[in-house]
Amino acid sequence: MSSLERASGQGPPPFEPPVEILSSLSDSIQAALARYAAASTAQEKTSALKAIQSTSSKLSTATSPIQQRFMELNARPYLNVTVRIALELNLFEAIPAFGHLTLKELAKEINASEEFIFRLVRVLGAFEILEVTYPPPNHPPNHLMSLAHTPMSRLLISPAAKASFRNHFEILLPAHLSSAPGYYHKYGFKSPEDLKNVPFTFAHGAQDEGFFDLLVKDENKFKLFNDAMEIMAVLGMKPLGSLFAFDKLVSNEDGVALVDIGGGKGQMLKAIQEAYPHMKGKLVLEDLKAVLDGGVIVSEDVKLQTYDFFKEVQPIKGSNYFLKSIIHDWPDEACLQILSNLAPAMRGHPHSKLLICELVLPDQYPEPAKVVRDIMMLFIGGQERNLFQWHGLLQRAGFKIVNVHGAGGDNSSIIEAVLDE
């Protein structure tokens, strides 16, 4: 309320969004719904669903007073805190896979105060993370409250999802929330250019060390980070088998069909093998020794190769090379170093392909969740890129894009590139 409103004793005017705007948005949703019903391909369905989602969001905004939206914006971090506490309590595991559980039964199962759990599940229900059924009116609010799973709560049971939340709370967010403004006031409001001086390392008082330099020093945090990356493979891989025909790759003269550079535990290679069980050619998993020594999940026929993509020229020549969620970790100059170490292995091999599995941001009107990921990467010195930026980066490194598989989808795309020679 403004000082004038306080002085006059009047509050803000009634919130009455124009009917014409609401009607237009509603019509757009109905049109997109009709497109979805008539869609004959997965791409058409995805496009229609995205239109429904986008317009529904606009309708929600149009029907919400600005005061309510401001309060929700302020409250959003506390939802994440609530989920983090629920994960610590193993709350989601205590709910039956099928069926319901009362609040009293849940509190007893996880050995927590019924009043405390009521406060948590009330938030989880309001944000549709849990299905919460309240008792009839005139009963105590928590009397006979019934709880059941939603798709989100089922996902949050997975070890990878738990690791992802812990990664944000224990590694990323504390540093960013406390120190990011101070970093930019000191070094200027611009994207970091020096890998050894980013908001994350600034928050830890580190000099001449990058984000990953600090991570590898702490065995527990390094393991947590790698475990958290597994959820990205789980969420991002399901459609990739249909996006790109990995079984059509041409092997090099040693029979190597695909090299997964910086592939962690091998989540992607495992998924590719499952999608293409009869794929010909050998597979190679490359990463730092500390990562490979931490355990892999690939089959024994996958070769493990210690490799530092900053310091070494790619040792396997003339194959195909897979980089998933690697390039987005680094600013352009560091990416050029990675790519310059790869280029000699592809030179003179016309069948050799570079496959980059990353988020490709839309050039215009990107979805909120995607651009927020770019801010997360900004704080550790990385970047999510749109197609224009991908073309520019790869051209500088001597590559050219020949196709982008899955552009505009919800998950990562596969950028197919070759040496421009």
From TrEMBL:
One of its GO terms (molecular function) is O-methyltransferase activity. GO terms for biological process: methylation. PROSITE patterns: SAM_OMT_II. The keyword DNA-binding does not apply. Keywords: Methyltransferase, S-adenosyl-L-methionine, Transferase. Coiled coil: none annotated. It comes from the Eukaryota. This is S-adenosyl-L-methionine-dependent methyltransferase.
